[in-house]
């Protein structure tokens, strides 16, 4: 059997590995658009900061390790067209040579591409000017070259989502004075403003100049000015401007679906390719997975939610089914976590407005239990917002912000597990969680937050 996989990131490599694991006789070819298969895009900020000493360390597996599994890698090769009736994938190599690869099954994991906001001048400027849109390893190396060549003293980061916050920290670690611009009222808009303000305060404390409710409207070179670039914007209806040496645009992604849509695949939310729970696309012998495809959210139904964890799971399902399996994607809860200097922010499930939109009657409470017993040195509060359904008591979601070292990430995992099994808020208190004074309390922080929700709903 011949399996061809398009995409060398999380979904594509997971599909290829799963197919080879289940049937070592399967002939697996992976078509990779660049020269960096199985690299962790999520690790880019830590390479920029210097925490990861060499870019090669971002590889989940080396080229040789991937080849040792029995897969064939076609690097620097672009998939240009799918011939669905003929079961052929047309590709173009970097040198221009074209070829058609025959397949019995095809898995497409083309991922996503960065959103380019409507900023005047952005389409004309690039890395050579100090203007960067960050998403791929090539983008990373271009930024690295700019940092070495320009030795910037100032930078402006457009966007204060997960990657934007991580990059603000990374550039600050390089000794660069960072201004961060976010068009929404608060940073990290995937959590409620009550918790976003805590992240905002941490950025302020670390020297990042944060401007919320602000848009960037134009960028242009200023060869005779105090810095290389003049950035114009709008803050609260008033024009404003900044002079900086480099600009980094990280405002989100959209699904990369051109290959599949041209082949006749249907699309769903945000234009992602519509897939079933087995990751089939409706095209004969073609599966899709990862950031190019729709996601089954266990509480919301079909949506678009590009996450590395989801891409790994979907790719594994697609790879198994492409060789005759019957796996199903169990669904996502949107569990996410980010480190911002000395804070960790996490969320899973639904926020209040999302739950209301899904037909629930939500109530959200907020509490700040310590991460471990107060009498043991170093206890630190974790701000926890719990959302549940008033009538049924069903747990709907949680958001947490705590200091680095408070195990905030693992505590959101407790909630994610409870959500997966559709537990009640009360059920959180019934969990048998570990306890020792340096690490926790007889009632863990998430249990105390759940009990606060019960008191709130009863009041």
Describe this structure in words.
- The protein folds into three domains: 2-111 and 253-322, FAD/NAD(P)-binding domain, CATH 3.50.50; 127-249, FAD/NAD(P)-binding domain (3-Layer(bba) Sandwich); 342-458, Enolase-like, domain 1, CATH 3.30.390.30.
- It contains twelve helices and 25 strands.
- The protein has helices at residues 10-22, 44-49, 63-68, 137-150, 162-173, 193-205, 258-262, 308-322, 352-357, 408-420, 425-430, 445-458; strands at residues 2-6, 27-31, 72-74, 77-83, 88-93, 98-102, 105-108, 112-114, 131-133, 154-158, 177-182, 209-212, 214-221, 229-235, 238-244, 246-249, 253-255, 286-288, 295-297, 301-303, 336-340, 343-349, 362-367, 382-389, 395-403.
- The strands form seven sheets. The chain has a five-stranded parallel β-sheet with strand order 3-2-1-7-18. A five-stranded parallel β-sheet has the order 9-16-10-11-12, with helices on one face. A five-stranded antiparallel β-sheet has the order 21-22-25-24-23, with helices on both faces.
- Helix 1 runs parallel beside helix 8.
């Amino acid at each position: 059997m011949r399996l061809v996989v398009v995409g060398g990131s999380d979904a594509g490599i997971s599909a290829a590995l799963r197919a080879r694991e289940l049937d070592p006789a399967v002939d697996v070819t992976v078509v990779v658009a660049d020269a960096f298969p199985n690299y962790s895009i999520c690790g880019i900020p830590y390479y920029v900061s210097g925490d990861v000493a060499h870019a090669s360390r971002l590889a989940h597996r080396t080229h040789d390790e991937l080849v040792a599994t029995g897969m064939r890698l076609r690097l620097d090769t672009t998939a240009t067209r799918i011939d669905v009736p003929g079961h052929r994938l047309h590709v173009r190599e970097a040198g221009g040579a074209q070829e058609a690869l025959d397949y019995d099954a095809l898995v497409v994991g083309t991922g996503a591409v960065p959103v380019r906001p409507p900023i005047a001048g952005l389409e004309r400027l690039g890395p050579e000017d100090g203007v960067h849109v960050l998403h791929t390893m090539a983008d990373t190396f271009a930024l690295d070259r700019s940092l070495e060549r320009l030795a910037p003293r100032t930078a402006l980061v457009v966007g204060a989502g997960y990657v934007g916050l991580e990059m603000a920290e990374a550039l600050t670690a390089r000794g660069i004075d960072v201004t961060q611009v976010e068009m929404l009222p608060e940073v990290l808009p995937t959590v409620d403003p009550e918790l976003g303000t805590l992240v905002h305060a941490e950025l302020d404390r670390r020297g990042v100049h944060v401007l919320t409710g602000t848009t960037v409207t134009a960028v242009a070179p200023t060869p005779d000015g105090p810095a290389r670039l003049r950035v114009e914007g709008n803050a609260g209806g008033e024009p404003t401007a900044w002079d900086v040496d480099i600009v980094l645009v990280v405002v989100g992604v959209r699904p990369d679906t051109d290959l599949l849509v041209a082949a006749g695949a249907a699309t769903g939310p945000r234009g992602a390719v519509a897939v079933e729970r087995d990751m089939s696309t409706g095209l004969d012998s073609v599966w899709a997975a990862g950031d190019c495809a729709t996601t089954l959210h266990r509480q919301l139904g079909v949506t678009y939610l590009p996450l590395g964890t989801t891409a790994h799971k979907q790719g594994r399902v697609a790879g198994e089914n492409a060789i005759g399996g019957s796996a199903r994607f169990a669904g996502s809860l949107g569990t996410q976590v980010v480190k911002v200097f000395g804070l960790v922010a996490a969320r899973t499930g639904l926020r209040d407005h999302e739950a209301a939109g899904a037909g629930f009657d939500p109530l959200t409470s907020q509490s700040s239990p310590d991460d471990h017993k107060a009498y043991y040195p170093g206890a630190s509060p974790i701000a926890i917002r719990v959302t549940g359904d008033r009538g049924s008591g069903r747990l709907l979601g949680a958001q947490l912000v705590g200091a680095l070292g408070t195990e905030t990430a693992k505590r959101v995992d407790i909630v994610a597990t409870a959500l997966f099994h559709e537990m009640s808020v009360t059920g959180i208190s019934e969990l048998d969680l570990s306890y020792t004074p340096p690490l926790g309390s007889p009632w863990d922080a998430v249990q105390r937050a759940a009990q606060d929700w019960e008191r709130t709903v009863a009041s």
